[in-house]
Design a protein that fits this description.
The protein is an all-alpha fold. The chain has 2 domains: 1-72; 75-114, no CATH class. It has helices spanning 2-46, 49-64, 67-71, 100-104, 106-113. The relative contact order is 0.04. The mean pLDDT is 74. Keywords: Cell cycle, Cell division, Centromere, Chromosome, Cytoplasm, Cytoskeleton, Kinetochore, Microtubule, Mitosis, Nucleus. This is DASH complex subunit DAD1. It comes from Rhodotorula toruloides (strain NP11) (Yeast).
Length: 114
């Protein structure tokens, strides 16, 4: 009887080992397929870099009015990192856009009150 039980155990063990091996094979196949898909996505995504650069250039040209102006770097809002005078673009601020402080500063408001 114990010989029969051991035989059943070995058969069940062999069946489970075969099932595990089959499932591991399926997992390896699925991981390989996933790897190929990720590589394809990476290749396709890399192809859009030139298109991205083109549209970025187009957006800059449209925002600045010309290609020459789009290539220039915009002036920083503050002249220095510790400068409190904010410089606004011409035409967007009172006083010709030279600085916000000059047009709205204490001297300007004192002069308006007289």
């Amino acid at each position: 009887m114990s010989g029969s039980t051991r035989s059943d155990f070995e058969r069940e063990r062999d069946r489970l080992v075969a099932e595990i091996a089959e499932n591991l094979g399926k997992c390896v196949t699925a991981v390989n397929q996933l790897n190929r898909n990720i590589e394809n996505v990476t290749q396709v995504g890399g192809g859009f870099d030139a298109v991205h650069h083109l549209w970025t250039s187009f957006q800059q040209v449209m925002a600045n009015g010309s290609y020459a102006e789009a290539e220039q770097r915009p002036e920083p809002i503050l002249g220095r990192s510790n400068d409190e005078t904010i410089k606004l673009p011409a035409g967007l601020a009172p006083g010709g856009g030279e600085s916000l402080y000059q047009s709205v500063g204490p001297e300007a408001s004192a002069g308006d009150g007289k």
